[in-house]
Amino acid sequence: MKFSKLGTAFMVGCMFFLLSGCDTHDASKEESIVAVESSRESTESTDNTSTSKTDQPSVQKQTSQAELAASMKLEQATIGRVVDGDTVVTTDGRKIRLVGVNTPESTTRIEEYGKEASNYTKSKLTGKHVWLQKDVSETDRYGRILRIIWVTVPTNDMDEAEIRAKMYNADLVINGYAEPSTYPPDVKYSQYFVTFAREARKANRGLWSYDQQGTTKGDLDREYSGKSSSSSGGKSSNDGVKVFFQNCTELRKVYPNGVPSTHPAYQSLLDRDKDHYACE
Fold it and tell me: Which among 97, 111, 147, 201 is annotated as catalytic?
């Protein structure tokens, strides 16, 4: 009888111990699950914070660029196609003529280095997002919109280093694909372009490798003509004799690219667009 009571007590004690162990195990398991979930939430929160911090510089940069562009009245656009070296069309259909520069012709008539200039602009601008800047005039006499094209927003649009590195008009002149061509009142960057052209001419770069007067009309033609007139060689006016041609067809047989106003063959009657350049 004593054994039976003892056995019963022992069994009860074992059952209590087992039940207590299960409760403890379950509680421990629940605590582990809570800890894991808490850790996961903490990690996700840290990741989100980290991502947010990583995105901040990009957002700030975009905001800063937009503010700079607005301060200089730059308008963003995308280039859809290239007409020639100095004329492009945006994706919204606007025809843009680059201000202050002139590339050799490559469409209705062909000038030396015209195709190279056109292909260069195609490789640099087609499909690209750019920034457009107005000088003074809105359009030229052909209805083309006159603009400076920046490939990157400058921090100072009159800083020479930035003009060299970020302005496409300057790029064309620096690399010998265009000559400077100034038409007042759009003269904001004309002196820079003349400086860049002299550098390119001195280095015989691009179109300057064909002739020291280049292959199309531009601001440096007058410099070259002036030097020619004081020299003893070539077709010059140092003897005071003017050279007359009946019309542009006859003149182009001798001077295929036309002549500037300082040239002895220049006649105002042959300068139909009154740009001081006859039969271009």
Answer: 97
Q: How is residue 186 annotated by DSSP?
A: B
Task: Please give the pLDDT value at position 154.
Answer: 97
User: Are 216 and 179 within 8 A, CB to CB?
Assistant: yes
Quickly tell me which residue has 């003897």 as its tokens.
239
Please give the torsion angle defined by the CA atoms of residues 80, 86, 267 and 224, in that order, rounded to the nearest 10 degrees: -170
DSSP 3-state percent helix, strand, coil across the chain (nearest 5): 50, 15, 35
Catalytic-residue membership of 105? yes
Among the options 144, 147, 201, 280, which is catalytic? 144
Look at the domain 67-218 and name its fold. Answer: OB fold (Dihydrolipoamide Acetyltransferase, E2P) (2.40.50)
Q: What are the sequence ranges of the domains in the chain?
A: 67-218, 220-280
Place of tokens 């063959």: 265
Catalytic residue status for 94: no
Strands 95-98 and 145-150, sheet pairing: parallel
pLDDT, residue 230, reads 38
pLDDT at 67: 92
Amino acid residing at 223: E
In the chain, % of residues over pLDDT 70: 70
Sorting pLDDT into bands at 50, 70 and 90, what band is 137?
very high
Cut 0.85: pTM above it = no
Which one from 75, 81, 105, 198 is the annotated catalytic residue? 105
